[in-house]
Amino acid sequence: MSEKVLKQASKDTCDTFCYDEEVVQRVQPEIKIVEGVELIFKALSDATRMKIAYALSIEEELCVCDVANIIGSTTATASHHLRLLRNMKLAKYRKEGKLVFYSLADDHVHQLVSIALLHSKEA
After folding, report:
1. 65 domain-assigned
2. Which segments constitute the HTH arsR-type domain (predicted)?
């Protein structure tokens, strides 16, 4: 590492190791509530799935064929990603004859997509 990088890295850590035991005792048990939440972000961290989620936030409902054309993939690829989103409870589907339509599971997913997009525009 260059000297400049070392100096910069040292500014973002404490110069001495200490902690507030009261804060640690209060917050540490609460951390367990986030177990499994990372899977939602893992599902949305894939560029294709994020595009699909965003498309579903624009249109309330899309057919698998529409999704495939929107993202420029085969229906098999679109279906694979939609199935993963559905299994993660981020999307839901309904069948109408030979067609399958997908939508976001609820407003929380829509909000996650919207907030992520807003944050990325701010950066």
Report:
1. yes
2. 29-123
